[in-house]
């Protein structure tokens, strides 16, 4: 079950439109912000008054339960939006966003974003398609948790983090992403993640050294497709 890999971000060649260039021309209501690694972009409970667009870097999205347990719900990269709940009437942030690497982010006030969506139809189409793709990803995550083994879930999340399918070439995964974070994302223990990571490396599906970024090879897809 859940044997297909779906790209979350909208392929760049799907629309003859450059969101990066367009967002840079909005003017009042937007600003470029640099965040150092591990810096909080916003925290749970903050006022939800803006949308963010990642130009460079990686951002980790987390949520904390009432009992204080933290869970990673997503890791985003270049070309991704986050904080879009503010456009749907979300008054405060339901989770937190943290820079996993040094990041360059465009912060767009809610009002400016709404005006841009109404003014530029190509941008609106692209943004809606992006949100729909994100929703599909969340549904796939749920199916993955319900029906697939922890080994398959780990393989799938590594392929997604490596942007498998983007221009046909996987890119290095986030530097120093912890096994604890991977365990949170797939709902298993750190020891199981460690076991599977070592197995993937021995099989030649991934390459990494302690503390370094690691490379994911397309051959890892064999784990996801294997019955």
The ordered H/E elements are HEEEEEEEEHHHHHEEH
Number of strands: 10
Q: Note the beta-strand portion.
A: 15-25%
Mean pLDDT: 83
- Poorly predicted runs of 5 or more residues: 1-15
Count of DSSP helices? Answer: 7
Helix percentage: 25-40%
> For the CA atoms, what is the radius of gyration?
18 Å
What does this structure look like?
The termini are close together. A four-stranded antiparallel beta sheet has the order 1-8-3-6. A hairpin with a 5-residue loop joins strand 4 (59-64) and strand 5. The protein has helices at residues 19-23, 110-119, 121-147, 150-161, 179-186, 190-202, 221-225; strands at residues 30-35, 40-42, 50-56, 59-64, 70-76, 81-82, 96-99, 103-109, 206-207, 215-216. Mean pLDDT is 83; it is low at 1-15. The chain is α+β, with helices and mostly antiparallel strands and 227 residues long. It has seven helices and ten strands.
List the topology elements.
Elements: H1 19-23, E1 30-35, E2 40-42, E3 50-56, E4 59-64, E5 70-76, E6 81-82, E7 96-99, E8 103-109, H2 110-119, H3 121-147, H4 150-161, H5 179-186, H6 190-202, E9 206-207, E10 215-216, H7 221-225
Antiparallel strand pairs: 1-8, 2-7, 3-6, 3-8, 4-5, 4-7, 9-10
Helix pairs in contact: 2-3, 4-5, 5-6
Q: How do you describe this structure in short?
A:
The protein contains 7 helices and 10 strands.
Features:
disordered N terminus; alpha+beta; 10 strands; single chain; 227 residues; 4-stranded antiparallel beta sheet
